[in-house]
Amino acid sequence: MIIVLRSGESASEVEGLLSDAGAEYRRLVLYDRDLVVAWPERSVPAEKLTNHPAVEAVVKAPGAYQLSSRAWKPDDTKVSFGGAVFGGGYVSIIAGPCSAESREQVLETARHVKKAGAHALRGGCWKPRTSPYSFQGWGPKALEWMAEAREETGLPIVVEALSTDNVPLLEAKADCIQIGARNMQNTPLLRAVGKTGKPVLLKRGFGNTIDELLCSADYVMLEGCGSVILCERGIRSYERSTRFTFDISAIPVLKKKSHLPVIADPSHPAGDKSLVEPLALAALAAGADGLIVEVHAWPEKALSDSKQQLTPREFQELMEKARLLVEALGRRMP
Amino acid sequence: MIIVLRSGESASEVEGLLSDAGAEYRRLVLYDRDLVVAWPERSVPAEKLTNHPAVEAVVKAPGAYQLSSRAWKPDDTKVSFGGAVFGGGYVSIIAGPCSAESREQVLETARHVKKAGAHALRGGCWKPRTSPYSFQGWGPKALEWMAEAREETGLPIVVEALSTDNVPLLEAKADCIQIGARNMQNTPLLRAVGKTGKPVLLKRGFGNTIDELLCSADYVMLEGCGSVILCERGIRSYERSTRFTFDISAIPVLKKKSHLPVIADPSHPAGDKSLVEPLALAALAAGADGLIVEVHAWPEKALSDSKQQLTPREFQELMEKARLLVEALGRRMP
Amino acid sequence: MIIVLRSGESASEVEGLLSDAGAEYRRLVLYDRDLVVAWPERSVPAEKLTNHPAVEAVVKAPGAYQLSSRAWKPDDTKVSFGGAVFGGGYVSIIAGPCSAESREQVLETARHVKKAGAHALRGGCWKPRTSPYSFQGWGPKALEWMAEAREETGLPIVVEALSTDNVPLLEAKADCIQIGARNMQNTPLLRAVGKTGKPVLLKRGFGNTIDELLCSADYVMLEGCGSVILCERGIRSYERSTRFTFDISAIPVLKKKSHLPVIADPSHPAGDKSLVEPLALAALAAGADGLIVEVHAWPEKALSDSKQQLTPREFQELMEKARLLVEALGRRMP
Amino acid sequence: MIIVLRSGESASEVEGLLSDAGAEYRRLVLYDRDLVVAWPERSVPAEKLTNHPAVEAVVKAPGAYQLSSRAWKPDDTKVSFGGAVFGGGYVSIIAGPCSAESREQVLETARHVKKAGAHALRGGCWKPRTSPYSFQGWGPKALEWMAEAREETGLPIVVEALSTDNVPLLEAKADCIQIGARNMQNTPLLRAVGKTGKPVLLKRGFGNTIDELLCSADYVMLEGCGSVILCERGIRSYERSTRFTFDISAIPVLKKKSHLPVIADPSHPAGDKSLVEPLALAALAAGADGLIVEVHAWPEKALSDSKQQLTPREFQELMEKARLLVEALGRRMP
Fold first, then answer.
1. Is B252 close to A275, i.e. CB distance below 8 A?
2. CA distance A237 to chain C (A)
3. Within a 10 A sphere around the Cβ of C109, how many other Cβ atoms?
4. How far is CA B262 from the centre of its chain?
5. Which helix (H) or strand (E) holds A303?
6. What distance in Å separates the CA atoms of residue D319 and residue B246, rounded to the nearest whole number?
7. Cα-to-chain-centroid distance, residue C190
């Protein structure tokens, strides 16, 4: 449950009531509001709290997630970093290679996506791979290339954390830390990334529900981080003509349940670049606040996911159509 | 395999070669082309046929479907009836109630959707229901109401065939016969509807693959019917926040594999009307050649699917956005 | 709702109450009990009926199915034909080819499965096939071969109805009529087969839920047929190492929800014969009342499903283990 | 690829060949065999290696996994700890509470399962929970209770690692370390647990394929750990009458693809204790080398998963039937 405190009021009596009742709680400041999050529900003395003069509201969001719910925050949350803005009517595009493979590849791709109008650069430095015999990423060295690309192009960088060991370096160097699909329920990692306070891009696991994604957002937010971007990237189903089944409905469902911005990754479900553009446009038409798209200066040489990465020219065409569509539907790119 | 004959040439020698080789075959005229479809592949003397003077081309489409494949017909097929046009750059909207429940409901809904710009009227007369204790439709009487609505509004009517028994009446009265999701692999029904030669709206089964949908289209087309419209309407997955998982990728995948027009039903996967508009717009952005949307003059009184049917006003808003989006992306409504 | 009448009482007053209340109803005799099934629930005057002297009980089963529910019939239903017995502690095995391909193949396979201890013979005469270019079965001719095999071996025969057109012939010649997975929701076919009163083997659709299977059983039973055998044969999931995902849990779940016997088809989910034995034994251990197994005298020559059909020797080994297991767990084969 | 060295031969020349060819490699001793695992495949000079006098065999297993494949090790691997033996004809049962909730609960449950014939004790100390507001486990304190239960009963203990931080303590105190479903692709955790060399119980993720499970086993084995037990515990599908769909086919498929022992967790897919026994017996009939079952001295008081935990009496009945079935099918419990 979320206890919203009146501005300027002390939380100490509220904390006392919760302690006495045997509830666990955490104090937080999120979006300039003073909050106390308390659980389990049965231990929270809701009536006493509601009537306490320091308390503005006591909210029990439906479902197992609380902080990410619209129940206590009806307005859209806007997340921004380095010129990219997601949510609240703004649509931004993150683009770049699946893996940061070489200094030259990162810089060249960054120049192209910047020119086409992208708002942020992606590039994997530590890669979560199904097989231990697949390319695992170049690690800290790759992160340096990404930082250099930011210097040159001005694009903020989004990099995935594979383990809690990566977090300090990402906190120092990245503008936004990504949690990948396989780690969506890696709760120690969610907590560690949340503690940095940096913007977090949280991808839905391919076997996870929408409600589980929101619970994972709560793990991050409970550490005091309000800048969480949710990302739909395809789920598993029986259909085999695409790599994953892109759950387009997740976009409006998430926007309805949560105040957080929602973006889409059209590259991973497609598995084939001819499908990236239709899925990207569909996601924007369904209300997505942005996209994260794989683009590679030379896709045919890619060390991972070579079939689904766009060429710079294909990305430019996508950007043009995306802009037309976003404006036709009354939103805008920064 | 598809053997395309040269214009004006006799098929008799080709048929002789196939008979001698022990192949089964069927002669067809589709899209003004003379065809012989022959199977199984191993029995077709492809080389002899290719070199025969009456033969223009011998095509083996990849996969188990042949007639619905783009392999032998690279251009888009356009299907039209009563002013509605699907495919080849045209987008049309079919709207109306889940079930035709009363004369008044059908007529009133028809007037509203006509005014909002719909191109055809839907309305179930025989309803495929999971439980024998649910409303099963008003049958021939309901078809009369639909026909009356056509008289008044000029909208062509799309009505589902539940069994081969319904086909003669639908052949006489409907402009387009729908095969519902549960009947996608009801092969006697597919053949019976194909024999009428009327336009057919073929919905994907909720447990069926894209390739299976195309095989079912082949059952219809093999009876000489070229006017088949494919329809994505959501599949089953583990995600429970929507009634079905709308497989948006099916739209570009079908457009790539097949020359047939592809439309989307956003109402059934949504299961809730707040999701209908985002799914509808997403489908159009992904390249759908049309929509079939549930609209009810008084949704709260509906005998089936009351939660997912739009009010006339909601439908009008959807039509306005759909038109903007379709035009922004360079296609048009008739 | 199910209204169970007292033995020997007239239904006329009960019918009058239902008519007056605007409910639909059907009179039935099932398992020697006089029943009136009435719907929709909101129109049934339950209180009046409960207190009526002709009424023994008024039962509203949870869920959308009624007649197949254990709610009104707590004891196991036993279905038998020609020496095979399913349910109530009895386990029987149906075996035979996927398709009845030739007189010789049917007779030879029948002799083998009889010798190994099978209780009934299967063999497809009309085949529901995904593609119109696949083998569609030999029809009435194949049914003659099956009948001849029954003459010779004494095994009763189980044959699938593909369409309502097949039903009269199957009624005349088959001992048990199968409804295949693709037709589980073909409601005209369910009704037509139910009207024959013959034992029905109803397979679960690969995209259907357990509750939907029970609703389909109700369609059959509502025509007065109490001899329905339910069959789990695998559902669709994302896992690709088997043809379908055998939903073993369906067996105990169905046994809990329904009084009808439940059997398993281990051949279709396996898709590969090395998996047939483990799945068959698992099904029996989970409580299945029988099996339907594909066996072919010469599997390598089969016209359909050649990889999943057992040889006679493999089937004999399976029968020996199955018998051991069934007896170890306290049930028996007739 | 796996390069099996001849007994007593030096690996140095093999390593030299791999280095020269630009391959990555790891030396290992597994099951008393000297191995060099090398990748990527295209960089491994297979022909040179095959002909090298120090090399006994060069094996490329089909698929992305290598060490867990039967391709290089056709015989069953047997994993044992503290009297429990899994594989090679032996079946063992791990039982205990979902969470270790109190000293009394752990000790009392341990006494019961020991008496009923269980071979090892389970009990969660750090719990991976979907929501941050659910009970997260008592941590090190709970591990002490588990260790005390081992002292008293002699049962070895199986405890889940939630993060790499837990690994040192588990290495010191547990007999077998579990990797839970949500962490199946947490590669840093897989590597950390593999480094301990202790027996590992690796559960399949509920959205993961069988091949991905084997790739994860390879992550563990590549650190030198050969004692990996695979565990099927249910996957996600559209069917909602069980918590997960227990993929019974995974058991024979894994046994065919891999030499590692395979066990089943019937409690999590069931979600309801009435289904635990049929699923457990089915798993054993399908060839499982053991079970891990949730048992709680007082299930109604459980802090997690209270509906799916067996009472001691229910567990004892299950053990009796399990023993009968295992022996009927020619295997044995230690």
1. yes
2. 5
3. 29
4. 7
5. none
6. 45
7. 12
> Which amino acid is present at A241?
S
**C209 to D241: CB separation less than 8 angstroms, yes or no:** yes
- Crossing angle (nearest 10°) for helices B276-285 and A250-257: 140
Q: Which of A242, A281, A328 sits opposite B253 (nearest CB)?
A: A242
Residue of B nearest to C223 (CA): B132
B241 touches chain D (CB under 8 A): no
Beta strands in chain D (DSSP E): 2-5, 24-30, 33-39, 55-59, 79-81, 84-86, 92-96, 120-122, 157-160, 176-179, 200-203, 228-232, 262-264, 290-294
Q: Which chains touch B (3 or more CB pairs under 8 A)?
A: A, C, D
Record: contact A207-D212, CB cut-off 8 A: no
pLDDT at residue D329 above 90? yes
Lowest mean pLDDT among A312-316, B75-79, C62-66, C231-235: C62-66
Cross-chain Cβ contact C247/D237 below 8 Å: yes
Q: Is the dihedral of CA B152, B153, B156, B160 positive or negative?
A: negative
What's B320's DSSP letter?
Answer: H
d(CA C141, CA C102): 9
The tens digit of pLDDT for each residue in D176-223 reads 999 999 999 999 999 999 999 999 999 999 999 999 999 999 999 999
In whole angstroms, give the CA distance from residue C92 to residue C78.
11
pTM, 2 dp? 0.97
The count of other CB atoms within 10 Å of the CB of residue C63 is 15
Chain A hits for C237, Cβ within 8 Å: 238
CB–CB contacts below 8 A, B to D: 6
Query: Mind listing the pLDDT tens digit for each residue in C114-157?
Result: 999 999 999 999 999 999 999 999 999 999 999 999 999 999 99
What does the pLDDT look like over A136-180, one tens digit per residue?
A: 999 999 999 999 999 999 999 999 999 999 999 999 999 999 999
Q: CA of D240 to nearest chain B CA: how many angstroms apart?
A: 8
- Taking the C-alpha atoms of residue B184 and residue B229, their distance in angstroms, rounded to an integer, is 13
Specify whether the CB–CB gap between A104 and A142 falls below 8 A: no
User: Exposed/middle/buried for C300, CB within 10 Å: 0-12, 13-18, 19+?
Assistant: exposed
CB A174 within 8 A of CB A157: yes
Residue B240 contacts A, CB cutoff 8 Å: yes
Phi, psi of B49 (to 5 degrees): -65, -45
CA dist D120 and D131 (Å) reads 29
Tokens in use for B245? 């998982």
D231 φ, ψ (degrees, to nearest 5): -140, 120
Residue of D nearest to A163 (CA): D188
Distances, alpha carbon A217 to alpha carbons A161, A192, A224, in Å:
15, 13, 11
DSSP string, C251-267: HHHHHHHBSS-EEE--H
Burial class of residue B125, CB neighbours in 10 A (0-12, 13-18, 19+):
buried
Q: Which of B234, B213, B218 is nearest to B280 (CA)?
A: B234
D62 contacts chain C (CB < 8 A): no
Map tokens 């069959």 to a residue: C231
C241 touches chain A (CB under 8 A): no
Gap from A239 CA to chain C (nearest CA, Å): 7
Q: How far apart are CA A297 and CA A249, in angstroms?
A: 32
| Chain B residues closer than 8 Å to D238 by CB | 236-238
**With a CB-CB cutoff of 8 Å, which residues 120-159 of chain C face chain B?**
128-134
Half-sphere exposure of C72 (CA within 13 A, CB side): 25
Task: Please state the ipTM of this predicted complex.
Answer: 0.96
Partner A contacted by D69 (CB < 8 A): no
**SS3 label, residue D187:** helix
